[in-house]
Structure formats: structure tokens, C-alpha cells
């Protein structure tokens, strides 16, 4: 079945974002750097460097930001990477946006206090949008990134939950517009079908999303393969792109990515 939304085939003419940020990503599970295929914990690739070594390497290559995910907490709750955040802060100049298992305002405070520049809210942002909108107001628009993972189902981009196996009953357009109205500044959108697949980002999806929430910096996630994909994401108006597997497997040079 096609995953192309007919409503996305004619987006408004995009404008390249002059403040585009590549985000090298580190996903951590059981203390190791890993990547999952389409979010499936049973399809994991583990990489040799420690998370701190990987972060230091990205900093040495010129990265300003790091996207850090606690996969253990994403399943069980209870963010576990505070010591790693502290070590990254002490040994690099990286600004870190990070999440996994964020369930309460106290969780947000703890992660910010541990050294995060932004806290990423995923499942709860779909289940309890009013709560998360309140956090945007409380902590500030620069301290919260809402992450919406989407799949094209029944003629719309839907937002599944629980390992992408259950329907939330909500659509991407609905919540993106809601959060933009609540003052959100940073929205990370993952095309589930392209996550970990190195198939290229879904540019029609991101062009549409940027047209719907032009004042929000949209971070493209899923499928980025090379510098051309990064340049293409910027060209459709995205404010950033998440660089995961392609960096870890040396399919793309971070310096080339940053030059985009």
C-alpha cells in the first residue's frame, strides 16, 4: 500500500530554513550505543563506542547539538541518563536535547537540572496534549521538543502509541497545529516507515508539515542517508534533521552534514 498522502502532493513552495541544525543522534540501551529498525527492540544493532566516546567524537567534528535517547526509559519510564548528561557537559560544549520515559513535570525538571538544553516529550505529548502544552508555557518554548511519530493510515498521518502498535485516534496535523498554537518552537517528526531504513526522508511529509506550522522548527527524523538528504530537508523548510544510522555506519561525514 502506498504511504503517500494525496493531501501532501502539492505543498506550498518551501523556503530553505536559514537556521537549519543537524542533530547527530545517540540512542542508548543497557549502556550501549544502539539503533533499532523501525523502533523494534528485537531488531537492534549495537555499536562499539561508548555513548560518551560517541558524543565526544561528534563534538570534536564540530557538532553543536546532540540528540540523546534513553531507550530503556522509553519502555519502562524513569530517565536514566543523567550521569551521562553530566559527563557530556563536563567534557564537551554540546547542547543536548534528550528524552525517554518523561512522564511528569518533575521528570522534566530533573532532566533539565541534569544539564539538558531541551527535553523531548513523545508518547505523553500524544496522550495528554493539554498537559504538555502546559509544560511549554511553564518551562519555555526553547526547553521542550515535542516528538510525534507518524504512520500513514486510512488516508491520514496518524500517531500510533505503545511501540507504534496501538492507535491513539489522533492525527499529525491535529496535534502539530495544536502545539503551534500553544507556543511550541521545536517539533521532531519521525516517519515510522523510514526509521532506521536509510531510505531517504519523506520530503513531501515535511514540506506539508512546515506549511501547516511555519513558525515551528520541524526536525526531520527517519531515513537520512547522506548530505544530499540533509540539504533536501533544509530546502523544504525543516529546521533540522536527526542523523542516526548513517553517521554511526560512516555513510555520511558529520563535517559534510554540518556544512549543509
Please sum up the structure shown:
The protein has 260 residues and is an alpha/beta fold. The protein contains 11 helices and 11 strands. The chain has a single domain (20-259), classed as Alpha-Beta Barrel (TIM Barrel), CATH 3.20.20.70.
Identify low-pLDDT runs.
1-11
Largest sheet: 8 strands, parallel, barrel
Round the Cα radius of gyration to an integer and report it: 17 Å
The SS-based structural class is alpha/beta
Indicate the overall shape. globular
Secondary structure elements and pairings:
Blueprint: E1 21-29, E2 32-37, E3 40-47, H1 51-60, E4 65-70, H2 71-76, H3 82-91, E5 95-99, H4 105-113, E6 118-121, H5 123-127, H6 129-139, E7 144-153, E8 156-158, H7 172-181, E9 186-191, H8 203-212, E10 217-221, H9 227-235, E11 240-243, H10 245-248, H11 254-259
Task: Please explain how this structure is put together.
The protein is 35% helix and 25% strand. It has 260 residues and is α/β, with parallel strands linked by helices. The two termini are 33 Å apart. The model is unreliable at 1-11 (pLDDT under 50).
Quick tags:
8-stranded parallel β-barrel, 260 residues, EC 5.3.1.16, Aldolase_TIM, TIM Barrel, His_biosynth, 11 helices, disordered N terminus, alpha/beta, cytoplasm
Amino acid at each position: 500500500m502506498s504511504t503517500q498522502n494525496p493531501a501532501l502532493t502539492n505543498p506550498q513552495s518551501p523556503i530553505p530554513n536559514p537556521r537549519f541544525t543537524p542533530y547527530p543522534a545517540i540512542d542508548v540501551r543497557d549502556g550501549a550505543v544502539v539503533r533499532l529498525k523501525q523502533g523494534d527492540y528485537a531488531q537492534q544493532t549495537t555499536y562499539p563506542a561508548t555513548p560518551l566516546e560517541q558524543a565526544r567524537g561528534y563534538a570534536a567534528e564540530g557538532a553543536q547539538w546532540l540528540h540523546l535517547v534513553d531507550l530503556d526509559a522509553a519502555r519502562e519510564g524513569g530517565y536514566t541518563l543523567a550521569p551521562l548528561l553530566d559527563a557530556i557537559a563536563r567534557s564537551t560544549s554540546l547542547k543536548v536535547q534528550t528524552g525517554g520515559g518523561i512522564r511528569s513535570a518533575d521528570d522534566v525538571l530533573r532532566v533539565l537540572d541534569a544539564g539538558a538544553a531541551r527535553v523531548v516529550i513523545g508518547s505523553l505529548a500524544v496522550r495528554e496534549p493539554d498537559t504538555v502544552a502546559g509544560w511549554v508555557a511553564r518551562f519555555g518554548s526553547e526547553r521542550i521538543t515535542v516528538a510525534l511519530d507518524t504512520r500513514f493510515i486510512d488516508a491520514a498521518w496518524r500517531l500510533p502509541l505503545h511501540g507504534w502498535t496501538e492507535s491513539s485516534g489522533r492525527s499529525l496535523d491535529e496535534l502539530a497545529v495544536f502545539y503551534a498554537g500553544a507556543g511550541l518552537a521545536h517539533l521532531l517528526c519521525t516517519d515510522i516507515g523510514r526509521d532506521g531504513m536509510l531510505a531517504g526522508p519523506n520530503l513531501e511529509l515535511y514540506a506539508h508539515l512546515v506549511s501547516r506550522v511555519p513558525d515551528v522548527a520541524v526536525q526531520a527524523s527517519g531515513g537520512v542517508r547522506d548530505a544530499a538528504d540533509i540539504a533536501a530537508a533544509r530546502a523544504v523548510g525543516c529546521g533540522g534533521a536527526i542523523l542516526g544510522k548513517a553517521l554511526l555506519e560512516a555513510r555520511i561525514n558529520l563535517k559534510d552534514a554540518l556544512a549543509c
